[in-house]
Amino acid sequence: MKLKFLGTGTSQGVPVIGCTCEVCTSKNPKDSRLRSSVIVTTDENKKILIDCGPDFRQQMLSNHETHVDITLLTHEHNDHVIGLDDMRPLIFKSGKNIPLYCSPRVGNEVKNRFPYAFADERYPGAPAFDLHDIENKPFHVLDIEITPIEVIHYKITVFGYKFKNLAYITDAGFISDTEKEKLKGLDVLILNCIRKFDPHPAHFILPDVIKLFEELQPKKLFLTHISHHLGLHDIEDKQLPFGIHLAYDGLEINF
């Protein structure tokens, strides 16, 4: 299996509109970050998308991805779901509804934002989804086991997802001891890290992530959901402790 980062930025993306900081004006493509999303490719070439934000169309085209078999949603914030309408070409091509796996709360929000996708009589050209409610326990789809990881993002619960010995977590500011047990000793752990300094009410910052790395001891830790406040990729990546890396758009990991 492999995981590709379609986007590694925060809700504003990088560069930020109107910002002239050294990150936002950098010519290094690794400093340009679309909204956070990944696509997992199984051994049978099935495609699992995690989150579908406002950059979905651009991400699929830039990475030469042509289909999605299922979509996992972490939570309902717009930078993680608002691109769902852009799945229409994939739905039309396959002739099938796209299955969405998420918590019931997130599913209700998706219905509220895209009511035309769930109408009894949809207008021609509307997207179509099959909602599958999941809870905080492993489930099987596409012949693989997926384990949700429940984390806290300010005051709401968010699901990360674990496949084999890799886990992907975005938009987290707290992980309970119970959920940490699912994350110990992984080959690859992916965590959000919004900036280097100044505690954030909803996201991990770099000292939080380093502490979790020492506690959970994955072989490799990749940072995602990165803002322009974290610094230039090529400088900051070299300064991270051994085993911790900055992810960037287009990076692919085999696992």
UniProtKB/TrEMBL annotation:
<dbReference type="InterPro" id="IPR036866">
    <property type="entry name" value="RibonucZ/Hydroxyglut_hydro"/>
</dbReference>
<dbReference type="Pfam" id="PF12706">
    <property type="entry name" value="Lactamase_B_2"/>
</dbReference>
<dbReference type="InterPro" id="IPR001279">
    <property type="entry name" value="Metallo-B-lactamas"/>
</dbReference>
<feature type="domain" description="Metallo-beta-lactamase">
    <location>
        <begin position="34"/>
        <end position="225"/>
    </location>
</feature>
<protein>
    <submittedName>
        <fullName>MBL fold metallo-hydrolase</fullName>
    </submittedName>
</protein>
